[in-house]
Amino acid sequence: MYNVQTMNIDLNDAAEGRSCAFSYELTDVVDLFGDRLVNFLSPVIVSGTYTKIDDDVSIEARLETTAVFNCDRCLTEVKRDFSINILETFFSPSQSGNGITLDGDVYVHNGRFVNLDAMFRERLVLAFPEYVACRVDCKGLCPVCGCDLNVNECDCRYGDDEDRGNQFAVLKDFASGGKNGSTKKKNV
C-alpha cells in the first residue's frame, strides 16, 4: 500500500496479473478551479488498486473529499460530499501498432512509469458542478440592494418602469434587443 504525495506506478515492480493496492492524498487541487471559490473541508483521498495486464495498467479507484462552494444565486455556503468511482486503463505506447488509435480519449503511460495524478485531477474537475444552488427555489439577491431574498424581503422595486437606481437595468434591454441595446439598423 502506497501513501505518497504523487502516485507513480513503477512498471518494473508491478507483477503481471496481480492487483496492488494504493492510497494517497491528491494535493494542490484548489488551483484547478480557476476563479471559482472552492474550500476543501477534507483532503482529497484517492484509494484503489492497479493491475498490470501485458503492457497495460488497469486502475480501479475511488476519489473522496468534501468541499464548500458559494451558491451562484445568493452566495450562501453549500457543502458537497464527493465520492467518485474510477475505472480506467493506461495503455502502452506500443499499442498504436496493434490497431488501437491512441488519441486524446485514452491514457497512455511512458513504458516505465504510470503517473496517475493528471487523470485523478481531471476526474475531480469533471465531477464538480458547473452551477451551484443552495436549493432549487433559491430567490437569490436583490439586484438593487443586494439583500438575500431567501431571508428578507426588501422594499426595492425593480421591473419595467422601476429600474431607477439599478445600475444594471440597461442590460435588460440589451439582451432582448430593445431600445438601449438594439443592434438593428434604423431606417433613415
Could you characterize what this model shows?
With 188 residues, this protein is mainly beta. It folds into two domains: 8-127, no CATH class; 139-179, no CATH class. The protein is 10% helix and 31% strand. It has helices at 117-127, 169-176, and strands at residues 8-10, 19-26, 39-40, 44-53, 56-70, 77-91, 107-108, 113-115. Strands 2, 3, 4, 5, 6 and 7 form a six-stranded mixed sheet that branches. A two-stranded antiparallel sheet has the order 1-8. β4 (44-53) and β5 (56-70) form a beta hairpin. The chain is elongated, with a radius of gyration of 25 Å. The protein starts with 7 loop residues before the first strand and ends in a 12-residue tail after the last helix. The relative contact order is 0.15. The model has no long low-confidence stretch (mean pLDDT 77).
**Overall pLDDT level:** 77
**Helix-strand category:** mainly beta
Low-confidence runs of at least 5 consecutive residues: none
Note the gap between the termini: 78 Å
Task: Report the count of strand segments.
Answer: 8
- Write down the overall geometry: elongated
User: Percent range for helical residues?
Assistant: 10-25%
Please state roughly what percent of the residues sit in beta strands, choosing from under 5%, 5-15%, 15-25%, 25-35%, 35-45% or over 45%: 25-35%
What is the radius of gyration computed over CA atoms, rounded to a whole number of angstroms? 25 Å
Query: How can the largest sheet be summarized?
Result: 6 strands, mixed
When the domains are counted, the total is 2
Strand/helix succession: EEEEEEEEHH
Per DSSP, the total helix count is 2
